[in-house]
Every structure is written in structure tokens, then in C-alpha cells.
Amino acid sequence: MRIPILVLLFLSSISTSYGQEVLSNRIANYTMSIELDIEAKKIYGHTQLEWTNPSDDEVPFLLFHMYYNAFKSSESTFMQEGGVPALLTKNIDNNCGWGWTHIKSMTDESGNDLISGSQYIQTDDRNIADQTVLKVPLSSPVGPRETIIITFDWEAKIPQTMPRTGYNKEYYFMAQWFPKVGVYEPAGMRFNTEEGAWNCHQYHSSGEYYSDFGNYDVSITIPSNYQLASSGALIDSTIHSDTKTYRHVVDDVIDFTWSASPHFVCQTDQYKQTQIKHYSYPYKADFSDRYFSILKNCMQFLEDKLGPYPYPTISIVDPPIHGLFTGGMEYPTLISSLSFKFVPEGIRMPETLVVHEFVHQYFMQMVATHEVEEPWMDEGLTTYMEGRILDEYLG
Questions:
Q1: SS3 string of 176-243?
Q2: Digit-coded pLDDT (tens) for 341-354
């Protein structure tokens, strides 16, 4: 059914998920069930998307990011732009290391089939081999401030480690990994002066993501001997015969990311009401003291200067050496660092990376600027604050 946005906001102001105050307009809300298949190197997903039209327009179609199709072949725009080091694609054909995403079925709340009329489009170039944006016509337009609920089943082949995402050996880092609705910008927002329009770029090697805020409720099933690091707070877990399902929830964020490995060691600390988690392989577990110390300093500094961190968790993933291309990244309530045992302790690279990626929780995770079109508001402000914090605490 389609629900007026004012009703949704009223209801959410009365009672929100797990008591959290409403912090955003919650335009794109996801409920997902995910299964990791380590033999086939695939994920199987079931998604319910609740999307609200933020404009005065009638919106006749949705656009989706299909990020993993950037790794479908060497002909995608991402690959053509030369954003992947040659060593990452070595033996990729022999290893079946290419990735892709495919939506198998999609229906609206009335049961109308939506996927049969869908098509890949190129919003930035004329590369017809690029399939990173999918246009999905709706059975009827979404009216101003109305909400549509659509359900879809999909699967994805996980690429061997690419920039920011993929697998290598028994290490998985799942970033920009699920079919994700683009941003409909109403008139008066950014560069739209007279009418609204979709902002949904193809996946470029130099670009990351731009998304609407929403609530995420994600259940992830992995082998029982694997440890899961994830955005959000762990609500519950269920043990099956040889798998385990973890349910994580996080409200008022623009994305959701997770990582898994049987070799993860998880260490914890606390800053006020926020639980801090550090996931690493055992040989790097001793970096936790350095990470926890500087992260708590960073959180205090930003709280004093900008305002408190509003989420109940923050996780640090320190990838193994064979996952280094997933290090140094930022996602809501989860960041990845990078450390090397052979680097002297006086070299503050681990601290620098953690500070930088945590500042990104403010710029652009909470401020939610467009880091592709307006990078100075993302990397620019983050690098400035990183310098302030390192100078304050490390000299």
C-alpha cells in the first residue's frame, strides 16, 4: 500500500526501532535476508524496500545501483576507467573471479511484476556494456509524498577482491554489494531549480556512493565457523546445523556494509554509550589498544566541536594482507583500517586511517553530501578535521 509521508513521520515520532530518536527523513528503508554461499562465492538476497517520494512530482519509475555489475567484464565503465590494479585481475578468468548482480523477481504491494519491463541504462556515458544502473518502470506512478513497498529476490556473484569489496581466500568484505535505489532529488535540491530528477550515476572507479537516509534491518546467514562484522547493532542470532544467522539493525543511515571470515578475532571497548568493536586476524589483534585509544580521542574531539556520535556502535575492520584493497574505507557505523606488523610503532599510519575514516561518519555519512559531485565537502573537510585531531592528541 502507499502511505502518505506525514503519517509515516507521525508514527515514527511516537515509536521508533529500539527507542532511537528519529534523526532523518527515512526515504529508503530496507529489510533484507542474506545468505552467503562460500562454495559458489555468491550471496542470495530477499529485500523489501519501502521508498517514499520526497517531491511534488509523480515518479513513474525507480533507478537502482547494480554495483557488482561493474565487475561483470572488462568492458564496464568502472573497468574501462582503469580503476583496478592489474594484480587484482590476474588469473581472474581462470579463478571465475568476475562478479555480477541479478534481480530474479520484483513485485509491488499489489503483486504486479516489475522486473520484466526493466532495462539497464547509462546515465553518464554511452557504454552499452555498462550495467550498473537499472531502470524499473512502476505499475503506476508514486504520487507526491507517497510511499511504495516493493519486494525482490536477487543473487550476486562476489568478485575476487576489487577496490573496496569482494573476497580473497576466506576473507569477505561486502561494500556496495546490494541492489540499491538511487536518489530522487526534488525541485530546489542542489542543482534542480524547476523540477525533480533522479541522481543515479553509473559506478565509476573514482566514485563511491550517494544515498538517501533510511532504516536497515538485515539478517545475514554465514557458515557457523565464520565471524561477522557488520553495520548496526546485533539484535539476535540463530544457530542452525552448519550456519548461523545474525540480525543487525541500524536507523537513519545511508548504507549498510559487512565483512566475514573464520579467522576474525573480535575485541571490544566502550565510549560513553557507544560500543566499539575491532575485527582483525589474530596476528594483528594487538593493534586494538592503538585503535581504541585514538578512536575515543577522536569521538571526544568531534563531540566537542560538532556534536555527539548518534549511533550505538562503531566497528573497525583491519583486513588481512590479502584483503588490503578493502582497507581505508568508511561506511555507516563500520570503517576499515590498514596496518602492517613490520611498520614501527612510531609510524602512526593505523591511527591516521582510523581517525580519517571515523571523521567520515560526519562527512559525508551524517551530513550526506554528494561525494562524487562535491568531493571537497567529503574528503576536504575530513582531511582537515583529521589533521586537527592528530595534532591535538599525537602532536
A1: CCCCEECEEECCCCCCCCCCCEEECCCCCCCCCCCCCCEEEEEEEEEECCCEEEECCEEEEEEECCCE
A2: 888 888 899 999 99
